[in-house]
């Protein structure tokens, strides 16, 4: 998986078409993607190679859990 601007390509995640890079952080990048089976847009965090250790996976899981519990947040899109 690369971090170049995609040309409507899948970047290795089956069922998702990556549209646009939304942001870059310490552990990787966040992309606007379309879940092709249901035609829904979502944000997908792609971890950098080398950043995928047990601590990073745990931190990502905790972050996803916290975001899932939020009802209203300026960075959460329904």
List the helices and strands and how they pair.
Elements: E1 16-24, E2 28-35, E3 40-47, H1 54-69
Antiparallel strand pairs: 1-2, 2-3
Number of helices: 1
Number of strands: 3
What's the rounded overall pLDDT mean? 76
- Biggest β-sheet strands, sense, barrel: 3 strands, antiparallel
Secondary-structure element order, N to C: EEEH
Any overview of this molecule?
The structure is a single chain. Helix content is 21%, strand content 32%. It has 78 residues and is of the alpha+beta class. The model has no long low-confidence stretch (mean pLDDT 76). The termini are far apart. The longest helix has 16 residues.
Summarize the structure.
With 78 residues, this protein is of the alpha+beta class. It is built from one helix and three strands, in the order βββα. β2 and β3 (40-47) form a beta hairpin.
Give short descriptive properties of this protein.
globular, 1 helix, 78 residues, alpha+beta, single chain, three-stranded antiparallel sheet
